[in-house]
């Protein structure tokens, strides 16, 4: 027997273990965690085809096929992104699905006489353009330092909060129960279950707390009559998405141009998601990896219309799930992709998942989306704000990202292409942060001289870098001349968590900066 094989196997195992995302948890655990990913994004992935199909006048019987098609292609795109093939796939735990950024534009295309074939053609052509320009986006990694990535990640979490709130209220403002105490109480109950299960001493329960909370919340909803499973048995059990079921794609100049703008937004958002999940997983993300991830986005978007799907992109809410569960394996997401494909060919299972009340998803979403924002805040804590304009970069960028959330009609009088870009809080914050970072930190004449800006000097009041050490102060210790001293006026040497002895400065002075 060749004795070299075990050595090669051990070497391969070590190589796999070198990246946190390459850990394989086993088939059972991978599919359990993968199901949690599917449940987290299920509402988001079925909403776009329902909205676009409804605008196109698709009969209710065929809407199920459109939804199943989007589930199927979302599964394929997820597997491509997480497993990866040469040139395609970031090999990160990113779940793919129909992009919300394309909904408004595609709705306009289908209602202007082109129908679904024009929408499919616009998606296919714009994705091909996006595939060509991905090398440019892969080169912007140097323009995404923590001040930019932290801002974008925070904005992703904050911009998703209205989605969670809308789900918690019932997701349909036309229903009489929308925003009712019962709906919000159900969301609150689900949130409470997440909190309780997260504190479980059994790791499997703690990590699957969101999944278990959704199941428990749905059972509770059924008991009180807030869940309806009567439609589960209606319709076919198996239905493979037939290629070009709604007609062959047609191409219009206006449709392709408008969707190309959307593709630029999607590339920006996917870049942010790749950087965000890389930060959460604690794995290196370089130019090549971003390029591979963007090509997976665009490649799957080109194929998507063949199976009656739309533009694909990474789902930000699943980035939050990676953060809150701590499950970093990309193969968990691959398992989720397989589940999506199964749901796409077994619409009966999709109808079971569709029966989960939206308030249940809203309670779970509050935790998930808030975790994304918290992850961004943690990244912003690493930023050096001393003697520079990073504070104003963060302030303006988050402000721009919140405009579409606080005032959805803010940009309504601007050109359509401008609205398409800036109506997304994520792309608004990303574009603003990148441009301001270039202006203040890369263009020489824009750099601030010490003492020339009130924003650059804002950090002089409190130096938080030694804040961990302050917890060890004793009675009688005080702040004197910007340092911690004991009752006798002697400097207090404080040992930080990293073991370093410091004389913690608290109130900065011009000399210290």
UniProtKB/TrEMBL annotation:
<keyword id="KW-1003">Cell membrane</keyword>
<feature type="transmembrane region" description="Helical">
    <location>
        <begin position="389"/>
        <end position="411"/>
    </location>
</feature>
<feature type="transmembrane region" description="Helical">
    <location>
        <begin position="209"/>
        <end position="230"/>
    </location>
</feature>
<comment type="similarity">
    <text>Belongs to the nucleobase:cation symporter-2 (NCS2) (TC 2.A.40) family.</text>
</comment>
<feature type="transmembrane region" description="Helical">
    <location>
        <begin position="242"/>
        <end position="267"/>
    </location>
</feature>
<keyword id="KW-0812">Transmembrane</keyword>
<feature type="transmembrane region" description="Helical">
    <location>
        <begin position="63"/>
        <end position="80"/>
    </location>
</feature>
<dbReference type="InterPro" id="IPR017588">
    <property type="entry name" value="UacT-like"/>
</dbReference>
<feature type="transmembrane region" description="Helical">
    <location>
        <begin position="39"/>
        <end position="57"/>
    </location>
</feature>
<feature type="transmembrane region" description="Helical">
    <location>
        <begin position="116"/>
        <end position="136"/>
    </location>
</feature>
<feature type="transmembrane region" description="Helical">
    <location>
        <begin position="143"/>
        <end position="164"/>
    </location>
</feature>
<feature type="transmembrane region" description="Helical">
    <location>
        <begin position="184"/>
        <end position="202"/>
    </location>
</feature>
<feature type="transmembrane region" description="Helical">
    <location>
        <begin position="356"/>
        <end position="377"/>
    </location>
</feature>
<dbReference type="InterPro" id="IPR006043">
    <property type="entry name" value="NCS2"/>
</dbReference>
<feature type="transmembrane region" description="Helical">
    <location>
        <begin position="417"/>
        <end position="440"/>
    </location>
</feature>
<feature type="compositionally biased region" description="Basic and acidic residues">
    <location>
        <begin position="487"/>
        <end position="501"/>
    </location>
</feature>
<keyword id="KW-1133">Transmembrane helix</keyword>
<dbReference type="Pfam" id="PF00860">
    <property type="entry name" value="Xan_ur_permease"/>
</dbReference>
<protein>
    <submittedName>
        <fullName>Nucleobase:cation symporter-2 family protein</fullName>
    </submittedName>
</protein>
<dbReference type="InterPro" id="IPR006042">
    <property type="entry name" value="Xan_ur_permease"/>
</dbReference>
<feature type="transmembrane region" description="Helical">
    <location>
        <begin position="331"/>
        <end position="350"/>
    </location>
</feature>
<keyword id="KW-0472">Membrane</keyword>
<feature type="region of interest" description="Disordered">
    <location>
        <begin position="487"/>
        <end position="513"/>
    </location>
</feature>
<keyword id="KW-0813">Transport</keyword>
